[in-house]
Input
Amino acid sequence: MSLLSRVFKIRSGEAGLVFALGFLLLGNAVAYQVSDIVAVSGFLSEGGVNKILIVWVIDSVLIFLATGLQSLIIDRFHRVKLIKWLIFGLALVFTVLRMLFVFEGLAGFNYALLYLVAEQQLLFFPLVFWVLANDMFNMSQSQRLFPLIASMSFVGKLLGIGVTLISPNLFSQLNIKSEDVLFLNVFIYLLAYLVAWVGLRKADIRETRHQHETVKETLMEGWGFVREVLSFRFLALAIIAMLICDTVLEFRFLVVSNAQFGDPAQYQTFYSWYRLGLLTVSFIIQGFFTSRIITAVRLKNAFFIKPISVLIGALVAIFKVDLVGSVIGVMLLRLPQYTVDESSQKAFQALVPEERRGRVSIFMDSYLYCIGVIIGCLFTGGIVLVGVLTGFGGYFYVYLGLAVLASLVAVWAIYKMRGVYDVSLLNWRLKRRQRRGLTGVMDKLEF
Output
C-alpha cells in the first residue's frame, strides 16, 4: 500500500474501488474500439461507402433522442445498479449481434447496427460511469484519483486498436470468422459485470438530490442561452459549420481509403493503424502542447485553429485527390478537434453560470452535433446522388468545395464571436457571474 500511496496517490481503502472503476473504463474502451473499427471496415465492404451517410444520419437522430432520454434515466436509479444493468445489457446486445451474423444476407445491416451500438457505447457508458464516480468520491479524492482512473480509457483504446490490428491475420490462420471478434466484447462486459458486482458491492454512494426537467425544458434553456448571448450564437454557427466539414472530410477519407483497400481484412488493418496514429499524436499534443498553445494565443484566438486547419485540409484534399491527400485532410480536421478545440470549448463554457451550464453544455455538445452532422450528410448525399445520376465523375470536388465554404463560414463566425465577446458579458444570462466578479473569466483561465 505504501507503493500505491507514493506512486499513484491511492490511500487505504481506495485501491479496490480504483481498480474496479479503472477496469470498467478500460473494458468499455477496448470494446468500443473493436466495435467501431470492425463496424466501419465491414460496412464499407458489405454496404458500400455512400450508404455510410445514411448510417450517420440515423446515428445523429439516435443521439438526439438518447440525449433527451438520459436526463429522464440517469437520476432515477441507484448508480451501481444502473452501471451493472448497462454492462449486462451491452453483453446481451453483442451476443444478439453475433447471432444475427448467422444470416449472411444481412451482413450490411448487421455492420450498420454494430456501428450504431458502438456510438451508444461511446455516449451512454461514460455518462453513467462518471456520474457514479462523482457520487462515490468527494472533491479531494476526485482530484487525486480521477486522472489515474481516466488514464485507463487511453490504455483501453490502445488495447482495442491492438486487437483489431492482429485479429484479421490471426483469425485467417485459425479459420475463424471476422465477426467472432464480437465474442471478445461479450467476454469483456461479462467480466466487467463480475468486477462491478464484487468491487462495488460495498461502495458508499453519496445521496444527492437532482432537479428533474423535461427534455423540452433542457432544450429550450440551451437554445435560449445560445440565441441571446451573442458570443455563444456565433460559436454555435461555427460549430455547425465545422461539423459539415467533419462530415465531408471523413466521408472523402472513407471513399478514397476504401477504394485503395478493397479487402475487408486489409482495410481493417489500415483503419486500425490510422486510429492508432491519430490517438497517439492527439495524446502527445493534448498532454504537452494544448495548454501552452491556448495560453500563448489566448482562448478567444484558439478557436481559429480548427477552422483554419480544416480549410487547409480541405484544400489539400482538393488538389491531392489520392489516399495521402485524404489522410492529410482528415488528420488536419481531427487533431485540432481532439486537442485544442475540445479544450477551448469546455473552457469557454466556464463562462456560463453553474445553474445553466449543464443544459447549455448538452445543447452545444449533443444537439448542435446532431444538427451539424445531419446537415452535412444531407448536402453531401445530395451532391453524391446528383453526381451519380448525371454521370459526373468529379462530383467529389463539389462536396470538398462545400467543406472549404463551411470552413470559411466558421472563420468568419469566430471573428464575429471575438468582436462581440465584451458585449456578451453584459447579457442578463451572465449576470450572476458578473456579480461574483468573474466577468474576465475567459482571460483568467489557466490550463
Notes: Confidence is low (pLDDT under 50) at residues 433-447. The chain has two domains: 12-199, 213-441.
